[in-house]
Amino acid sequence: MTLQIYNTLTRQKEVFETLRPDQVSMYVCGPTVYAKAHVGHAMSVLVFDIIRRFLEYRGYTVYHVTNYTDVDDKIIQRANQEGVDSFSLAERYAHEFDQHLKELNVLPAMVKPRATQTMGKIVEIIQKLITRGFAYEVEGDVYFRVQKDDDYGKLSRRRLEDMQAGARIDVDDRKEHPMDFALWKAAKPDEPAWDSPWGKGRPGWHIECSAMNLVHLGEQIDIHGGGNDLIFPHHENEIAQTECLTGKAFARYWVHNGMLQLSGEKMSKSLGNLVTIEDFLRDNDADVLRLMVLNSSYRNPLTFNDEVISANKRALERMRSAFNPAELVEVPISDEAIQTLRAQMEATKQGFLESMDDDFNTAGALGHIFELVRSINQARDQGIDAGNLEQAQSLLREVSNILGLRLQEAITRESCQEDIGPYVDLLIEIRLELRKQKLWQLSDKIRDRLKDIGVILEDRKDGSTTWKLES
Q: Residue 21: helix, strand or coil by DSSP?
């Protein structure tokens, strides 16, 4: 079996061959941290977490870098609205996003660079691009000359003459060409700014990722990932400025996930049609969202609605049912039934790997896993012994772990919640009564002591309090 990956650059599946044997360098564009993250952000993170987990299972050492954009027009605007420092606001939302990643069982990236920590490299790159004629300065702003790049548009398959100014591209008469994009922006009053040869200012959006790539992974990487809404202009511009700087192919494989859709539209902060990760996890198990991603091709749009959530809740329960213990029966299972289960185990292993090797076909891999779940439950009903059952459950545990599902761990947590639930509920009642009497110190003491033992309280706007076990 040979792993094949769909490459956005070539529009076809390609055999996966890395720059260095048994090593994968993977950069994934992270969020701009100016507001609470929504489940669309989670979808992209989960896609690349699953890809990384499978690559590691296949024996690769994955050097995974994902960034936070922590200086941006939206961050500055939100900070001004809230009357806070833009750096503090960005750091708060970055920290909150990190907590969500833990709750979603996402493996932490090796490095999570910030744009504000990479200014020296950004200025160095821009200086070199100017010296080589790929960029020019106008009144403190610096722009990239798209006409100097003969390959500009190769990722998005757009011709320069047909392009129109799009998102994050400002029409500016000072530009030599309408599609020239900003590498550096001259400082405006009351905005964060850094020193540069062109005066105080801050970087354009695209140059940040190129700089962080070069600092942490080098001039060439194996996988560059992100949502397909980044293909143009962000990734197109990353390619242009990086390859004009180095003279080398930037990334071997460009991997893009589809968008999560609510009511047929892309979920986004600008449209206002979002469900935050916080809201989703308050009412649902993290594995439900991961299953939603797994049940679809990562390159396709993913529909998000109550019906889809309910279907994946039922699927999750079905998977967990396979970990129930063996039952005592009067007539033991036949040898033929045991052989049938073992044959299904082999078929599941083979089918799982073949599916995942085919451009991470998680929906196909899940189909084989559910066949194993069905066979396990049938064998239990027929009276299988604990030893043979555990072998099949062990395989189910292995393949589900590769996908990042916490099936058996969740069963243990649910059992724990059932055991301590009445006592926690009683403490919450007492705490609510203390809060009504404005005995804040005692109220906070209950909250803090519960947190010390892994029980997190969440006070809701309607005055009620819910709780969960810490991830």
A: coil
Q: How distant, in Å, are the alpha carbons of 285, 424, 435 from that of 465?
A: 18, 11, 12
Share of the chain above pLDDT 70, in %: 92
Please give the DSSP secondary-structure letter assigned to residue 109: P
If one counts every other C-beta atom within 10 angstroms of the C-beta of residue 1, the result is: 10
Chain-centre distance for alpha carbon 77: 25
What length does the chain have? 471
Q: What is the pLDDT of residues 50-96, one digit of tens each?
A: 999 999 999 999 999 999 999 999 999 999 999 999 999 999 999 99
The answer to whether the beta carbons of residues 78 and 89 sit under 8 Å apart is yes
Structure tokens at 156: 């998005």
Provide the pLDDT confidence category of residue 443 given band limits of 50, 70 and 90: confident
Q: Any residues with CB less than 8 A from the CB of 342 and at least 6 apart, and which?
A: 391
**What is d(CA 156, CA 449) in angstroms, rounded to the nearest whole number?**
54
Reference 370, options 337, 339, 403; nearest CA is 403
Identify which of 355, 363, 359, 356 has the alpha carbon closest to the alpha carbon of residue 296.
363
pLDDT at 82: 92
Gyration radius of the chain's alpha carbons? 26
Res. 166: pLDDT tops 60? no
On whether the CB atoms of residues 294 and 265 are closer than 8 A, the answer is no
User: Which residue type occupies 323?
Assistant: F
Query: Which residues have CB under 8 Å from 79's CB, separation 6+?
Result: 34, 85, 86, 88, 89
Best CA proximity match to 293, nearest among 281, 306, 308: 308
pTM: 0.84
Distance CA 296, CA 46 (A): 12
